Amino acid sequence: MPINEAKYIWMDGKLIPWQEAKIHILSHVIHYGTGVFEGLRCYKTKKGPAVFRLKEHTERLFNSAKIYRMEIPYTKEEINKAIIETIKANGLEECYIRPIVYRGYGEIGVNPFGCPVCVAIATFYWGKYLGSQATEEGVDVMVSSWNRMAPNTFPAMAKVCANYMNSQLIKMEAVTYGFVEGIALDIFGFVSEGSGENIFLVKNGKLYTPPLNATILPGITRDTVIRIAKDLGIEVIEMMILREFLYIADEAFFTGSAAEITPIRSIDRIKIGDGKVGPITKKLQEEFFAIVNGEKEDKYGWLTYL
Ligand code: PPE
Prior knowledge:
Elements: E1 8-11, E2 14-17, H1 28-32, E3 35-37, E4 40-43, E5 50-52, H2 54-67, H3 76-90, E6 95-103, E7 117-124, H4 134-137, E8 139-147, H5 163-176, E9 181-185, E10 191-194, E11 198-203, E12 206-209, H6 220-231, E13 236-238, H7 243-248, E14 251-256, E15 260-267, E16 270-271, H8 279-292, E17 303-305
Parallel strand pairs: 8-9, 8-15, 12-13
Antiparallel strand pairs: 1-2, 1-7, 3-6, 4-5, 4-6, 5-17, 6-7, 9-10, 11-12, 11-14, 14-15, 15-16
The structure holds ligand PPE.
């Protein structure tokens, strides 16, 4: 997906012209994947642009950094302010936001402690993650031959750059075989998540999703959908999911900041339900988009207006 360039990128406290936002080739992050990041969206509303679940994303950024013993040289409030400042400087009504905390230039060798912890924030327009019609029509996906990381190897709860090498294996395989996305199983064979999304299934009116034990990123959209579903009176069950449960689900969908709520219409060429967006997926999508677009009262306090 080509990047929609904006004007400025925030780097270590300053707004830098887009083309000049560069780092040294010997930065630790380039060689060893030493970076933690976030991805969130700012939506266009009648009351102006609003960032969705800013507080929670910044919180997760700090948690990811903590797991990797990286001390972010800013407070959460300062990061939140910097995000808002960057969106404003770029004059964007709606955008995707990519804050990244990484080990920069200083020393070579695995030991990261001698390298500075740097922070950058980019904001840019990003359309539908899994294809222009994906949220309306659904996507065709496969179960990946790659597993998600084993527990106590690469921490899945940290949104760390290095984890995305595993995601890339899943994604490349899927795309090469003509699918839009891959669903990874964990090392025990239970359903985990997509390369960049959490997964939900609907069976007999109930909503199912893998728990954190299934080596998933604790998705903020996942949390959003769980909250919305419960408030709509839909029972939500977090449980280890067998691969075959995927095929016999009535409905399936991905969640993510980039993917939002994207229906899955087939898995391994097996049609899910009747191959169309199911009624519960549709209901959750309607509720989700009404909240993020500011059309429905923000009773959860999830929007931060610029
Ligand atoms: N699992 C993974 C592995 C993941 O990368 C994401 C987000 C999620 C689940 C959903 O989490 P959340 O966004 O908090 O609901 N993936 C981000 C990056 C995608 C990319 O290609 O870059 C995103 O959606 O922003």
